[in-house]
Design brief:
The complex is a heterotrimer. By secondary structure, chain B is mainly beta. Chain B has one helix and ten strands, in the order βββαβββββββ. In chain B, the strands form three sheets. Chain B has a five-stranded mixed sheet with strand order 3-2-8-6-7, with helices on one face. Chain B has a two-stranded antiparallel ribbon with strand order 4-5. The longest helix of chain B is centred in the first third of the chain and has 7 residues. By secondary structure, chain C is an alpha+beta fold. Chain C is built from nine helices and 17 strands. In chain C, helix 1 packs across helix 9. The chains are: A alpha/beta, B mainly beta, C alpha+beta.
């Protein structure tokens, strides 16, 4: 059922998609204000990627993962106490702008509806191709981190780490603490910070505590005696059926590291799949080179009933994500007339102050770790689309044949048509077109995202349970 | 490639490639399979190359496994259960092994 | 201002086929302009059938033209593969359609009879057999038919191709043989002159002797300026595709086909939805049901992707080939089935454009039939 504005009048007041810091804090606040909330999350337990498995993790692992991880405990505790309707293990595969959501849980697909939708699907690690990145033994640093949180698993061979960004160094520190044999850290970030990052330094100095954390990570790596290279290029991995060695260039010198595993991390980017599929407008960030949904300070997207909260809205980290979730909750409560606008603004004030304080070092860090993709260095035979095995050379060929739209590259060559549906290669294809044609990413555009957002068996869609 | 950081208290038994394996309870199928010492979980249908879980957060679809007779399941998103039958998707010459 | 002998507006299946034919016929400098709006390209809605089955029910001229196109494909397809070096997943090994009830069967039996009679009058043989359940099942030995299937029809000389690989191959060959392809420019206006025509894009102006408008729905806007109203309307098709499966469906059916990659395409929906390329859960639900009804094993396949695309449909379903009134150097080629007709769009049509003499067999496929 829909009202005169085309907005649904059945189901919940709010559907929150994602149970990470933003989704949980938003749901907590909404429930506090008396709204009917449903939380849909793909994982079996609340916490998102950052606070994954926090309710069940062993105390030894909790120790290793430190304060930034255990900070999630009160949030999740409150969520359990508040006890809103919660569908764990629910994969959302289509969201319509009228508030109808389709999801798969325990092998059954169902429809749900809400007046407002909060998309809090967080961020993902930026996929960056290099020779050998599909070999077993190459894993994202976040993936390796998930294995600690979810499986209590620690690498038992020789490990190398490569890429850029604070999370790469954080993962190195965790692995050092667990006694892992780290052979080298290869950073694409230059040894001398780029000038553009320095203009943000004074503001960042306002949060010396966070900067000190970063410095102590670097000291720990140094103390462990791990070779730490900066400004590397031409990363590659060799091996027969799994990683055997890792290679790179630093200036003209080659770096060769014998290793069994390589953990890579090239920063994080908003996971925009759902925003794209619903039809939200997007903007491009030229420093961190990613798309993010257009939104106001409340997280309201170009669709008035769809909100973006957390790192999916813009990558700010876990603590800001939770704060942004609270702001979104206030805006929805005001729209629902649970509070008036003065009350909304009054309550928002202190959240915004905290957020501002948290974000002080962000511009500095974003500029310091601005991605260096060096796609020109990627050899023609390197796979870009892992699912369909489409190479750099094949993509360059169709571009040279006059294909300047990522969707057309996809249509004519099949990258992005495999199971992951372009989640891994989509952004890379746009970057390659931009590099090859000299067009700006904004003009090149991005892959169109369409349902289903998750693969589901045909039997499920044939037997879907629609709302009455 | 991976081993447990500490001895796990609770375990469940899964059948992996036809053999029973004890794995920690509550972990994802992908983590459980990696924990048994397997280096790859599938081979590419196109190139035949071995592939292993990459993102561990439901994005990359590299961890596809056959779980309880259903093929192409994202094993990093499924929790292990007692008695679960898991087969790695290893194919040669387009036929399944 | 840049010069060309012939400018083709539109780099889709129709434009690229024609442009390729023009360079093969050595028509001078040929320029193909394409706006490139990947997600709206009708080739995406194409099921990849190269067939004449059920075509031209209301129009004997079109029926014969479609039949001829498939005869020509036997040579056109392999030649294109050879010239481009791109495998097209092309074969003329038949196309079928299952019947799920007696009513469906009765309609097809009658239509087939009608098309056979039309063909006989026009001197060719419309090849289509009506089969019972057992005979139909023999065509697809590796897949068990659902219990509702009572039989089907089958034409052994229709075929299939990957329409998007075909598009790429035509463009690539066109470029290799000297054609110029300018992608990402949108034509704003066609300005006719005495001997030359000016084409204005959002970036550049071009001058040429002849213009071919093959811009699908975009043609309507371009020709409106020149006082021509094209009888086109959009029809949306929604398609869904599964994960890769081992080869099991050797011939494409109207409802499902297995592609060369092993994925299954499912597509039946036809609806009026303006230019909205979205998909609906309702359509996915009914298509999945139908596919499973036909082949129960498909219940286990994973649905990986869906998309909607807009077909270019004329009022009477037949294509339009003509010059516009008062300007015999401005040609228009629009209609659906651009994949099946590609063989003729790159042979007979370019010859007509070069010589200016319209072949008798397409005399009646012009604008005049709509009284515009």
């Amino acid at each position: 059922m829909k009202d005169a504005f085309g907005i649904t009048t059945i189901g919940f007041d709010v559907a929150v998609i994602g149970a990470g810091p933003a989704g949980i804090s938003c749901a907590n606040s909404l429930a506090d204000m008396g709204l009917e909330v449903v939380v849909l999350d793909e994982q079996p337990n609340p916490g998102g990627q950052i606070y994954k498995n926090i309710e069940h993790v062993s105390s030894a692992c909790l120790n290793i993962l430190g304060d930034d991880y255990s900070a999630g405990q009160p949030l999740i505790k409150k969520f359990r106490h508040r006890n809103p309707t919660y569908y764990p293990g629910a994969s959302v595969w289509q969201v319509n702008s009228d508030g109808h959501i389709f999801y798969s849980k325990d092998g059954i697909s169902k429809e749900e509806a809400a007046k407002f939708i909060v998309v809090a699907t967080g961020a993902m690690e930026r996929p960056v191709p290099f020779p050998g990145w599909t070999l077993p033994g190459v894993m994202s640093a976040g993936g390796a981190n998930n294995l600690i949180k979810n499986g209590g698993l620690v690498p038992n061979g020789r490990v190398a780490l490569a890429g850029s960004g604070p999370l790469l160094l954080l993962e190195a520190v965790h692995l050092i603490d667990m006694g892992v044999d780290i052979k080298a850290i290869l950073e694409t970030t230059p040894a001398i910070p780029n000038i553009s990052s320095l203009i943000h330094l004074p503001q960042a100095l306002g949060r010396m505590d966070l900067l000190k954390k970063g410095i102590s990570m670097l000291q720990k790596i140094k103390k462990a005696g791990i070779p730490h290279y900066k400004g590397i290029r031409k990363l590659s991995v060799k091996g027969n059926d799994r990683v055997e060695s890792v290679h790179a260039l630093k200036g003209d010198d080659s770096i060769n590291v014998d290793a069994d595993m390589l953990f890579v991390h090239f920063g994080v980017v908003p996971n925009t799949s759902i925003y794209r599929q619903i039809g939200c407008e997007h903007e491009w960030n030229d420093i961190q080179r990613y798309w993010y949904p257009q939104s106001d300070k409340w997280g309201r997207t170009s669709l008035s009933n769809v909100f973006a909260a957390g790192d999916g809205q813009f990558v700010h980290g876990a603590v800001p994500a939770a704060l942004k979730g609270e702001l979104t909750a206030l805006a929805i409560a005001a729209d629902m007339k649970m509070i008036d606008k003065d009350e909304r603004d009054k309550q928002a004030k202190s959240i915004e102050n905290q957020l501002q304080n948290e974000l002080k070092p962000r511009s500095f860090i974003d500029a310091l770790y601005a991605p260096i993709l060096n796609l020109l260095d990627v050899p023609k035979e390197t796979l870009i689309c892992r699912c369909e095995c489409i190479t750099m050379g094949q993509i360059l060929d169709v571009i040279d044949e006059g294909c300047v739209d990522p969707n057309e590259v996809k249509a004519l060559l099949r990258p992005g048509m495999g199971p992951c549906q372009g989640k891994m290669c989509g952004s890379i294809i746009s970057e390659i077109i931009s590099m090859r044609t000299g067009k700006k990413i904004k003009e090149v555009g991005s892959l169109n995202i369409r349902p289903p957002l998750k693969n589901i068996p045909l039997s499920e869609i044939a037997e879907i349970k629609f709302l009455a | 490639m991976f081993s447990s950081y500490e001895t796990t208290k609770q375990t469940v038994t899964i059948i992996l490639d036809g053999k029973p394996q004890r794995v920690p309870a509550g972990v994802s199928v992908a983590a459980a399979v990696l924990g048994t010492g397997k280096t790859h979980t599938r081979t590419s249908l196109i190139s035949g190359e071995p592939r292993a879980p990459f993102c561990m957060m439901g994005v990359c679809y590299e961890c596809l496994l056959e779980i309880d007779s259903r093929k192409d399941q994202q094993s990093c998103q499924v929790q292990v259960k007692e008695g679960m039958i898991i087969n790695r998707q290893i194919r040669t010459n387009g036929e399944e092994k | 201002m840049k010069h060309a002998d012939i400018i083709v507006i539109g780099g889709g299946a129709t434009g690229a086929a024609c442009a390729l034919g023009l360079v093969r016929e050595k028509a001078g400098t040929v320029l193909m302009l394409d706006k490139t709006f990947g997600i709206y390209r009708p080739s995406r809605a194409n099921f990849g059938l190269t067939g004449y089955l059920l075509k031209g029910l209301n129009d004997a001229v079109y029926a014969k033209w479609a039949f001829k196109a498939i005869q020509e494909w036997a040579e056109f397809g392999p030649q294109l593969e050879q010239d481009s070096g791109i495998s097209l997943d092309f074969a003329l090994n038949g196309v079928g359609e299952p019947f799920l009830c007696e009513e469906e069967k009765a309609v097809r039996v009658q239509q087939t009879q009608q098309l056979k009679e039309m063909a006989e009058v026009n001197g060719y043989k419309y090849n289509c057999e009506i089969l019972d359940r057992y005979e139909f099942s023999q065509l697809i030995p590796k897949m068990e038919l659902g219990e509702k299937v009572i039989g089907g029809m089958f034409s052994s000389d229709n075929g299939h191709v990957n329409p998007l690989f075909m598009l790429r191959a035509m463009r690539k060959t066109y470029i290799n043989e000297g054609g110029i392809f300018i992608a990402g420019e949108s034509v704003m206006e066609i300005i006719p002159g005495q001997s030359h025509t000016i084409i204005k894009t959002n970036i550049e102006s071009y001058v040429c002797s002849k213009v071919v408008v093959a811009a699908g729905h975009g043609s309507t806007r371009l020709l409106n300026h020149l006082g021509v109203k094209l009888p086109l309307f959009p029809l949306r098709g929604q398609l869904m595709v599964t994960n890769r499966q081992p080869p099991m469906l050797p011939i494409p059916l109207f409802l499902v086909r297995q592609t060369g990659e092993g994925t299954f395409m499912i597509g039946v929906s036809i609806e009026q939805a303006g230019h909205d390329i979205g998909t609906t859960v309702e359509a996915m639900n009914s298509q999945a049901k139908k596919a499973i009804e036909l082949f129960p094993i498909m219940a286990e396949f994973n649905w990986v992707r869906s998309w909607g695309a807009i077909r270019v449909i004329t009022q009477d379903d037949s294509p339009v080939y003509d010059t516009i009134p008062g300007h015999d150097n401005i040609f228009v080629l629009v209609g659906h089935s651009a994949v099946s007709l590609a063989s003729l769009h790159s042979s007979i049509i370019p010859k007509w454009i070069i010589s200016g003499r319209k072949p008798k067999e397409i005399e009646n496929l012009g604008l005049r039939r709509f009284h515009v």
